[in-house]
Design brief:
Layout (H helix, E strand, L loop, with lengths): L1 E5 L2 E5 L5 H15 L17 H16 L4 E7 L17 H17 L7 E7 L1 H8 L3 H18 L4 E4 L1 H4 L5 H12 L3 H10 L1 H21 L5 H29 L4 E4 L10 E2 L16 E4 L4 E4 L1 H6 L3 E5 L2 E6 L17
Parallel strand pairs: 3-4, 3-6, 4-5, 6-7, 8-11
Antiparallel strand pairs: 1-2, 8-9, 10-11
Helix pairs in contact: 1-2, 3-5, 4-10, 7-10, 8-9, 9-10
Length: 342
């Protein structure tokens, strides 16, 4: 906003948006959209973003540009390894997390090619949000987070930080923190059920989480009947959705100015941007639900059982299982979705 003096007094004039800032903001978002985890890969917006794709995020990005500060992204992610060992190699980060963190660091550095201050990412680790529902001891989540921190420090990049439930509520026990989170930010399970029935985005999220939980219960609760496992998985999925939404609301409250990323597929015109951490043929797969398969051409995320079915050889690093390798390229590697890591 500017003021101008004329023969009739002082006139307030609304300044036009800086066109250069707008163009830079769009360039930055195009870099983000190359990693977009989309709910509808067949939509033209998946490969050619339209103005409505940019609209929810342009003002947010431009505000950082106007103050010459790094673009701040937040992403709820990196909770803990799945306990289902048909998917994962163990409970500590492995090559999947290392490559994902390196890829995110590279993403921030790539933005500096079009905007000198670059970008930073705050990982809002949500393992303690779900631990009791998923049967993961809080101590295991602490161990997972500590190893993530060690990997980030050893990389020396400095663009990635961690934020968790302990940071949000430092003086409470874990159970007290979870109760406080639900009391302040959660919808009731009945409200979530109604949303799943009536809203496409809520139903998509529930179905994706329900699929993961059902797969895990098939292994972890093998003594139950299929019907019992299905019913248990449905209830668990509703609780995971409830806590995911509550954590998302807290993150938005703590970081209101940040660009919102999500590890879940999102609609193209959503206020959140679905974000791939690594290449995968499954738009829901993450490093904590899978393993890395190196076929000599590229790294991609698959489930452990699939890597073993393909004849992958397990590689150990630092006395821990790390990833699988194949002796020749696998056809799937040509059709995986890019997460920015070759």
């Amino acid at each position: 906003m500017t003021t101008a003096t004329s023969g009739i007094g002082t006139v307030t004039v609304e300044s036009a948006p800086n066109r250069n800032d707008h163009a830079v903001a769009e360039q930055i978002l195009r870099i983000v959209f190359r990693r977009r985890r989309t709910a509808d890969p067949t939509d033209p917006c998946a490969t050619d973003p339209c103005p409505s794709c940019f609209a929810p995020h342009l003002d947010t990005v431009q505000r950082f540009i106007e103050t010459n500060k790094p673009i701040h992204f937040v992403i709820p992610a990196f909770p803990a390894k799945s306990r289902n060992h048909r998917k994962t190699l163990g409970r500590l980060p492995d090559l999947g997390e290392r490559l994902a963190l390196e890829s995110m660091q590279g993403f921030c550095e790539q933005i500096s090619a079009v905007y000198a201050p670059g970008a930073v990412v705050t990982i809002c680790s949500d393992g303690h949000v779900f631990s009791d529902v998923l049967g993961i001891p809080d101590e295991h989540i602490d161990d997972y987070s500590a190893e993530l921190t060690r990997i980030m420090r050893s990389s020396g990049g400095g663009a990635i930080g961690l934020y968790g439930l302990r940071d949000a509520m430092p003086d409470l026990t874990w159970d007290e923190r979870r109760r406080e989170l639900l009391d302040r930010h959660a919808d009731s399970i009945d409200e979530i059920r109604e949303a799943v029935r009536s809203e496409v985005s809520a139903r998509r999220m529930f179905n994706g989480i329900h699929r993961f939980v059902t797969e895990d219960h098939t292994v972890l609760l093998a003594e139950l009947s299929a019907t019992q496992r299905r019913n248990r998985a449905k209830q668990t999925a509703y609780e995971v959705v409830q806590r995911s939404q509550a954590w998302s609301r807290l993150v938005e409250q703590v970081f209101p100015a940040a660009v919102r990323l999500s590890i879940h597929p999102q609609a193209h015109h959503s206020r959140k941007i679905g974000f791939h951490l690594l290449r995968t043929a499954d738009s829901w797969l993450t490093p904590w639900h899978g393993v890395v398969l190196d076929d000599g051409v590229r790294h991609m995320l698959v489930k452990r059982a699939h890597a073993e079915e393909l004849g992958g050889r397990l590689v150990w690093r630092n006395s821990r299982p790390s990833h699988f390798v194949l002796g020749e390229p696998h056809p799937e590697s040509a059709s995986t979705t890019s997460g920015g890591q070759s």
